[in-house]
Design a protein that fits this description.
Low-confidence stretches: none
Distance between the termini: 55 Å
Mean pLDDT: 82
CATH class of the largest domain: Alpha Beta
Number of domains: 2
CATH topology of the largest domain: Beta-Lactamase
Strand order of the largest sheet: 2-1-5-4-3
Strand content: 5-15%
Helix content: 40-55%
């Protein structure tokens, strides 16, 4: 037996079958098999489990392949976020709408912080800012509960509470909302409305990363994005 589990059980895990397994068992199995970081991520992904806290913290870097994928999306604004909703990668199209993330502080690149403190982001969302902000506050609330032993969440909560009365208000509602894919409309100061379809998915390479893409509609939005990207060289 490996880590107190049978051969059949391990075979089912390798096949990606749905099995009932605890994080502790996966940890023991990873140690017995002397798995490296990428192999450990894979086995947790097969079992549909999140990495333990310390490993999740280390999973915020992305590969060159993922960055090339973002860069190759052209006029589709895209970013990658970690479990703390820190934006850890982005492309030029994302920056022309949200500002140059390369010169922002790590806190400013947090999506929750951006939602509640960035005047530029609020303008982009227009009358959809409030429902969006309520969803983001609810997602932050869920993350806070999930990673209750990580002091980063309580520190971020205190900072957000001081920075935004609306964050405090939305937090108190104890709302629970999932992220929504689908049509999104953003406001551009000089070019009017920009229409996109939003899609997001978990990275198979690293299950702690979420890829978020806004695909521009063929209603003039692609041309407007090209114009913006020509005016703002990053």
């Amino acid at each position: 037996m490996l880590a107190e589990v049978g051969v059949d059980w391990y075979t089912y895990l390798e096949q990606g079958r749905h099995i009932n397994v605890s994080t502790e068992v996966l940890e023991r199995l990873s140690n017995v098999l002397m798995l490296d970081a990428s192999e450990r991520k894979h086995i947790f992904s097969l079992a549909r489990k999140e990495l333990p806290l310390e490993q999740a913290k280390e999973a915020s870097t992305i590969s060159e392949t993922l960055q090339r994928f973002l860069d190759g999306l052209g006029t589709s604004p895209a970013c990658i976020m970690d479990t703390r909703m820190n934006i850890v990668a982005w492309n030029s199209a994302y920056c022309v709408l949200n500002g140059d993330l390369s010169v922002m502080s790590k806190r400013e690149r947090n999506f929750v912080w951006m939602t509640f403190t960035s005047a530029q982001f609020r303008y982009l969302k227009g009358d959809q800012w409030e429902p969006h902000a309520r969803r983001i506050a609810a997602q932050f609330h869920a993350g806070y509960a999930r990673y209750i032993d990580d002091p980063w969440w309580s520190e971020q909560f205190e900072a957000l509470s001081k920075a935004s009365s609306e964050f405090r208000e939305f937090w108190e509602t104890h709302d629970v909302r999932e992220a929504i894919d689908g049509p999104k409309a953003l406001r551009c100061p000089n070019l009017g409305m920009l229409n996109f379809d939003h899609v997001s998915f978990q990275s198979l390479e690293n299950p702690n990363l979420i890829v978020s893409i806004h695909v521009p509609h063929q209603d003039g939005t692609i041309e407007k994005m090209r114009q913006l990207m020509g005016e703002i060289s990053l």
